[in-house]
Amino acid sequence: MIETERLRLRPWRDADLPAFAKMNADPRVRRFFFALLTREQSDASVAFFRQMYEQDGFCFFAAEMRETSAFIGMIGIQRMNFPLPTVSPPAVEIGWRLQAESWGQGLATEGAQAALQVAFEKFQLPEVVAFTVPANLPSRRVMD
Ligand SMILES: CC(C)(COP(=O)(O)OP(=O)(O)OC[C@H]1O[C@@H](n2cnc3c(N)ncnc32)[C@H](O)[C@@H]1OP(=O)(O)O)[C@@H](O)C(=O)NCCC(=O)NCCS
After folding, report:
1. What is the CATH code of the structural domain delimited by 2-143?
2. Pairing with 19, which of 39, 73, 89, 101 sits 20 to 30 Å away (CA)?
3. Ligand 1 centroid to 102 CA: how many Å?
């Protein structure tokens, strides 16, 4: 678990599944992805995050507000599970996806900075990569 001033990044709970599926079915959230996710696809991605957590001790965590425990999305580090031309598994990537209502508050950046610190200090990773499509300017700003 990772705590920041406003956020808690923690392992997934079954109770997160409906809220995560709701944001994965939101065209705003999926603007730069190929498609919206069905409930089954969303649940399957959480199952994969949990598997990665079991394997490595880190994953794309569930993100919640510390003050209210309200679920807001996912932030974390995880081993890549597909190759790209420039970077391939077992590289560790950093990623973020928040419900639209939680954008514009610096939460993704706050969580990502903490996740990066854990990657380098606790897990002693030599490198963390990030990638997105060129048009995803909000994500590129978080990367910066
Ligand atoms: C990518 C994503 C997480 C970025 O969210 P975000 O809210 O823009 O990013 P941050 O949480 O870092 O917030 C930055 C914004 O909050 C503002 N902000 C407000 N209070 C702030 C604070 N205390 N600290 C920092 N920034 C603050 C910044 O000015 C900035 O606003 P701007 O973009 O209008 O300039 C979000 O767009 C998203 O979930 N997109 C869909 C999924 C996705 O594409 N994921 C990435 C795939 S590669």
Report:
1. 3.40.630.30
2. 89
3. 8
Rounded to whole angstroms, how far apart are CA atoms 63 and 94?
14
Helical segments of 26-90, H only? 39-56
Q: What is the DSSP letter of 102?
A: G
Ligand 1 pocket check for 92: Cβ under 6 Å: no
Give, for ligand 1, the residue of 75, 139, 144 to mutate: max count of ligand atoms closer than 8 Å to Cβ: 139
Hey, what amino acid is at 19? A
Q: Which atom of ligand 1 is nearest to the CA of 73?
A: 39
What CA–CA distance (Å, rounded) separates 39 from 136? 24
**How many Cα neighbours within 13 Å face the side chain of 100?**
10
65-115 per-position pLDDT tens digit: 999 999 999 999 999 999 999 999 999 999 999 999 999 999 999 999 999
